[in-house]
Design goal:
This protein is about 40% helix and about 20% strand. The chain has 16 helices and 17 strands. Strand 2 and strand 3 form a beta hairpin. Helix 2 packs parallel to helix 3, helix 13 packs across helix 14 and helix 14 packs across helix 15. It is globular, with a radius of gyration of 21 Å. Bound molecules: zinc ion. Zinc ion binds next to loops.
């Protein structure tokens, strides 16, 4: 389909950070055909009036657990250990495969409505999430959460082999919108033996790894006591960071100078999820050091069980506020850099390197905002307004690979009313079921 967006303000996020006022964009099939000067022979099937609209690259969420929408608000005001042991790994004992589908579908509605076109998900029963990716038109990198403890001990269990079969079947599926990574939960929940097998499979098959890494000072101390190495150094020692497809590591909140050097050297992508770090009191990663030393960094929301929503607009805002507050330096993490972390850096982390910039030949992954509202006026700096003033309700349209997922504030690919109803019913059923603790956080 050919789409012409006429006379919009366009935040390109190109190398010069250009904002083009009253600019036209031509989209042909999956790509941006032209920005500014539109070829005379371009024949649009649809013309979008761009007045009072800001167009920017759609957001990429680099770490999420979408189906955990079902346990939103179920584990509040608790430290990580109690949050996992007493609430999350209790509720998940009642989780079914079908719940994962509806939880993932609810997550997709929420993400699209807040300007996100792609996400890295880490959870169970990935076939269900893959169906949602396919139907919603979003892009995703899916990692089946693995503990390596055996079927009888796990909810939503998959053997490593099953995950590899899933990857073979689905990687680069959904017209190239779906990618697959291996998803060991973390170093503290998997044995070294199992993690070595995961690393080996990743190297052999060229499949990436997505895991949680170095989330708290407690984890660092336990790793030093058990292995004589920090979690990052231990992950490197086990070969988890050596794959041809780069590892995606969530959090890395507590790291040493040597850890940062390892992350940079091994080309690991760190997914910073400021809301979880703040809400669970885990501490914030040294993002400025990461960026200065060349650690590839992106932003994520984490799951709604910890952060309550999947809103990347808020993740951007908290990333900026967190770094400024911690350092007592308002110059820290300028807003243009935050926008790049939430778009092109995330796109690269998920393996969609041709997204995240509005320029000729790039993928047409776009988010449109209604700027004719009190909190957007005056338009001195629209990029700053996106980061520090925008709401999900401002997002009017989202396009992924040239296809509308949201048009005039209506979801075009998902039956939102049914999804909301199903998710609500299932979430209430889940926590009323007889529950038991299915896993133990070692502290
Ligand atoms: Zn997580």
């Amino acid at each position: 389909m050919n789409v012409l967006i006429k006379g919009a303000d366009v935040l390109t996020l190109d190398a010069d950070g250009r904002l083009l006022r009253g600019c036209d964009i031509a989209v042909s099939s999956r790509n941006i055909l032209a920005v500014g000067e539109i070829p005379r022979d371009f024949e649009p099937d649809e013309t979008v009036v761009g007045r009072h609209r800001l167009v920017m690259p759609a957001l990429f969420n680099a770490h999420a657990h979408g189906p955990m929408t079902l346990v939103r608000g179920w584990a509040e005001d608790l430290p990580l250990e109690r949050w996992l042991n007493e609430r999350i790994w209790v509720a998940e004992s009642a989780l079914t495969r079908a719940d994962v589908f509806w939880g993932a579908a609810l997550a997709a509605c929420e993400m699209i409505r807040s300007g996100t076109a792609a996400y890295a998900d880490h959870y169970f029963w990935l076939e269900e999430t893959a169906k949602v990716v396919e139907a919603s038109g979003m892009k995703a990198m899916l990692a089946w959460c693995l503990f390596g403890r055996g079927a009888e001990k796990e909810v939503g269990h998959a053997s490593l082999q099953k995950t590899l079969d899933f990857a073979r079947l689905r990687h680069e599926g959904a017209e190239g919108r779906l990618r697959v990574a291996l998803g060991p939960h973390s170093l503290y929940m998997c044995t070294d033996d199992f993690l070595r097998k995961v690393a080996d499979a990743s190297h052999r098959l060229g499949i990436g790894i997505h895991l949680h890494l170095s989330e708290s000072q407690g984890q660092v101390e336990r790793s030093l006591a058990e292995h004589g190495r920090t979690p990052v150094a231990h992950a490197a020692h086990l070969g988890l960071l050596d794959g041809a497809a780069h590892a995606l590591a969530a959090h890395c909140a507590c790291v040493t100078a040597e850890d940062i050097a390892i992350l940079a050297r091994k080309l690991v992508c760190v997914a910073h999820c400021p809301k979880t770090c703040m809400k669970l009191g885990m501490g914030l990663p040294p993002l400025r050091r990461f960026l200065e030393l060349g650690v590839h960094s992106a932003l994520g929301t984490d799951g709604p069980a910890s952060g309550n929503d999947l809103n990347m607009l808020e993740a951007m805002r908290l990333a900026g506020l967190g770094q400024k507050h911690e350092s007592r330096r308002p110059e820290e993490l300028p807003h243009m850099q935050i926008l790049k972390l939430a778009t092109q850096a995330g796109a690269r982390a998920l393996g969609f390197a041709n997204s995240g910039v509005i320029a000729e030949g790039k993928r047409a992954d776009l988010a449109l905002f209604d700027t004719d509202q009190a909190h957007w006026i005056p338009a001195h700096d629209l990029a700053a307004s996106v980061v520090y003033a925008s709401h999900p309700g401002d997002v009017t349209d989202v396009m992924c690979d040239g296809r509308w997922l949201l048009r005039n504030r209506q979801l075009t690919t998902l039956d939102e009313e049914r999804i909301r109803r199903e998710a609500q019913t299932r979430a209430l059923r889940m926590v009323k079921a007889p529950l038991r603790q299915v896993r133990q956080y070692p502290g």
